[in-house]
Write a structure and sequence with these properties.
Elements: H1 2-13, H2 15-24, E1 26-28, H3 38-57, H4 67-76, H5 81-108, H6 117-139, H7 144-156, H8 164-172, H9 179-211, H10 217-224, E2 231-233, H11 234-259, H12 282-293, E3 297-298, E4 301-302, H13 303-319, H14 321-324, H15 326-329, H16 335-358
Antiparallel strand pairs: 1-2, 3-4
Helix pairs in contact: 3-5, 3-11, 4-5, 5-6, 5-11, 6-9, 12-13, 12-16
Bound molecules: protoporphyrin IX containing FE.
Length: 359
Amino acid sequence: MTQHVFAWLDERLDLSGLRAFIAEKTVPKHRHSVWYYMGGITLFLVGVQVATGILLLLYYRPSAGEAYESVQFIVSHVEFGWLIRNLHSWSGNLLILMAFVHLFSTFFLRAYRKPRELTWVTGVLLLFVMMGFGFSGYLLPWNELAFFATKVGTGIAGAVPLVGDFLVRFLRGGDDVTGATLTRFYGIHVAILPAITTVLLGVHLLLIQRQGMSVPPSVEKREKAGETIPQEPFFPNYVLHDVMWWYVALAVLAALALFLPWELGKKADAFASVPAGIRPEWYFLAMFQTLKLIPSHVLGIEGEMLGVMGFNVAAVLLLVMPFLDRRAADGRPNRIVTLAGILAVIYLIVFTIYGYLAA
Ligand code: HEM
């Protein structure tokens, strides 16, 4: 029976060809190999987000009158609802952390160099989309902290020159953060961003599949000098290693979800006084803290506008990184790029901690 089904499918889908391809596929093995599993962990967490997100959708209600109560219902009445909500919240945060780790590991291993420029570009776009997921998802429980943080967060978009006012109204669905903002964020979170992610992730993974895994420049040099770099079969060896890392990620996630429940806080009230300690999610803290430190005017230009423009320039530089580092394309070391990467990591860590302590 199984053979029959396989033969039927094989005739239509060329499964034997696919099986032969997977059986032949190999992955290079060297002392930096561990960093090449970070993308796989990120992918696993995307899977967790999709599965838990769909389950939350069954009970969540996207209106100012019902959102908070529906989340309260999920965590207190729906069977295992508390676990699903905790997993979704923690996994979303771990996902962004792992995307950053993956970004910096591909950065320092120069995996973006020719011919993988587009893998990098789709990766950076995916990170921005993941941060968009975090920003839009934060408001959905309609609690006090998220409400005021979203007010501040969307307000910052107003500092963009020329289109600032339009951007704020576009994000909020009006002049202020209201139920219309919630409905809008919901649409962005469950339809627009998932659609964009599907396309970007599809291209990212297709490119990796087509081009195979890169090796770091140091290993490439040894290869060019005639040394044979060991390879391991993709299936089952590499896949099993990947799964082992997923298992570790799942253990961390389960421990966080069980022992550190995600708080719900008080229901949002537009007329309540602004609570103390308003701050965004940790991955926006470095930017938030930087904006707070810039004086209100620098050389006659509004400080916040200058900061926001600075971040936009940094985002564009990050996106076009493979095209700037011409030395990497030729396999030559580039100390300025390495130094910029190290400074970026230090800046992000120091300012995130600073922002956390200062809030
Ligand atoms: C949702 C987010 C992402 C997912 C699910 C994802 C997934 C993956 C996977 C499974 C791989 C193959 C294994 C590996 O090399 O780690 C990979 C490779 C790669 N990713 Fe990502 N990635 C994401 C975001 C990013 C980001 C933010 C960047 C950097 C800007 C990036 C750049 C790359 C590059 C350059 C490679 C090729 C590595 C090589 O061939 O050596 N990815 N990604």
